[in-house]
Design a protein that fits this description.
single chain, alpha+beta, seven-stranded mixed β-sheet, six-stranded antiparallel beta barrel, 21 helices, 27 strands, globular
Amino acid sequence: MGWFRPSGAPAPVVSVLRRGEARAAGAAALISRHRVLTCAHVVNDALGRDDLLAPDHPPAVDIALVFRHGHEAPQQRIARVSLWISPPGRTAAWSGGDLAVLELTEAAPEWLTPVSWGEMAEGQPLRAWHGSGQRITYADTEVKLCDGRIAYLDAPLTGAAIGPGYSGGPLWSREQPVAVGLVAAHVMPDGTPFDGQRTVRRSRALPWQAVRDELVRAGASDVLEECSVLPAASASTRAEEDLLPLLWPLLADPATRADHARTLARHLGYTVPDDDSAPPVAELAALLSTHSRALATLSESLAPGLADDKARTALTRLLLHGRFSGTASLLSVGEHHRLLAELREIVEADPTLIPRAAREALRFTPLPEVLHSVRLPIDDIALAVGELEAVSDSAPVPAGTPQVPALLYLVECVAAAAGGPAEAELRGWNERVTERLGIHPSALAQRRFDALRWAAHRPSPVCNIQVRLYRNTSDPEGEFRCKLWLLRNDGPPTPLPSSESTPRTAEEVARLVRDAIDGIRTEPGQEHHAPRVTAVVDRGGLHLPVDEWNPGPHNTFVPGLPIGAAFQLTLSCPEMSDLVRTRDAEQHRRWASGHGTPLIVNPDCSPERLTLLLQHSHRDTVQVVLHGPPGDRARFLELCLALGVPVVLWDRTAEDHQHASRLDPVQPTGPLHGLPERVRGFRGDAFGDSPRHPARPSLVWEDTDPSPTAGLQLLDPSEGNTPA
């Protein structure tokens, strides 16, 4: 056992509850903010299946989890099975399997850290906790046999023993803050009379090596990527060796090293020997290379006592090495905790402020996905901070000094916008962190000036939300991938939460649109204004009933409305500009011409006749109204778009020209600027009284502003990207 030792405090517990009960069927390990890992037979038990080793995939039902740790109030979440590796059945020899990954519908509490994994080996002393999470349930045991696929643990005849309710929980090392496997089962007596030769405290475990191999075989690479794994011995040794020459100039003196190491241990939750000893520099290097906040926390105590510029340079070099090697986070344990507490209050008061500041002030910085959203959920604050810690500011700094991290510039912007006590607290926090990092005061002063200027600027209201819809060839029928942007009159397009990695149903796409508009309405000056929604599609997508897509109930009290009835929704097809070189110029010319006279396609019209009209008597026409059978309308629609007509209206359910009057309530030839709102009102009437309003109007409306979807798009040819 080394100088730094685990404190023995209760480990975090994820309880898997039995359906309809408060009792735990077992436990699970948190592997990321949205996923937990447990045994498949624990899921069977939680669902009330008679056979705990039933191999068939469980139904898509909710499973209740409870997260517990220390003095934090337990929090419940709902999850569903996303990966099922069935139990091996009741065989004499264990043959692997028995794993399940559960996907959370809401992020895990921010005070719970995902498990770090290490390999299991014979002789390791371990500790397990019952799924109830009660402190008294700790059970100590030891690895007696481990072949990499299965392990057997024996425990002394004292204290609690592993039994029912422990399965699926992590087995924690008592020498390092890592888990080395999952509890799988307790070896039960066979019913014969007890004697001195009977095995009474033997348990079976799944080593981390076996869990990893099962995930690989199941093709769950995305799950493995989220698992935090203790580096292998060779990689760890290399990282430690790189740190040694950087640590010696600062901590060569044993007494100094002991003082700082004790402070570090206290912050990280370790215990240390009760004597005057100091940790070996090599052991300190090992801790710094495996605990992400250890280096920043150590520097927090080192920085105030630096004797001269030479020592400051040595500490700066050490911190830069940690960040560039990827082994160290930007913030110390204390800094991280204080920042989350301050930002939590900011988000509670205005959940749109941090994402807005990130999008507008960090315009050229790759942002975490959670900051693309209009609103930042409280549970995602830690995720946003963690991802931004690794990003540097691109603005200049005095020669020889570190760059300002993007996170600190964002904090300055949030402080400037929040004002009052929050501004003072966040600025003070920033000043302490920049001083520890060795950032030049002038660099921070420049970012503070930029932040004040940003906070004083009031952007124009959002005028349009663009939703690009497309499908990959492998996507299920009727599901789409989408990308959203906010468009303002005085700035470039701003990306919003996308759903490009996973195909979504029409209802889910509509929900993304509604959530985006709900968030926009919280901005000053936007409370009573809803931007128009433009669905950007390919030629085939022009015939989708996007306006009828319904996001479902808004809340318990307010039912859902189709997005075409709730908002002004129009269509756009930039693909036509790729196919017809002169189209964009024609669109600009028609808008600039003064609009001309609307053209209504009559029964005598042919493609040749329509072409002559749009190139001569209606050369300045901005709007065309299409009637007639579906096949003719489709040909005329593409012809109008190719000739640069920016506004086209038609009834997609009309069978022939006799249905033309069904569009009369929309006033097709009325004032052009009011057409999108008249169409929205008609769609609302049709939703409430369909028999009296049988038409289903579709409206193409293409402004002269360039679409954010235009330009070069690099796609994976193996994926087979197909627009909607």
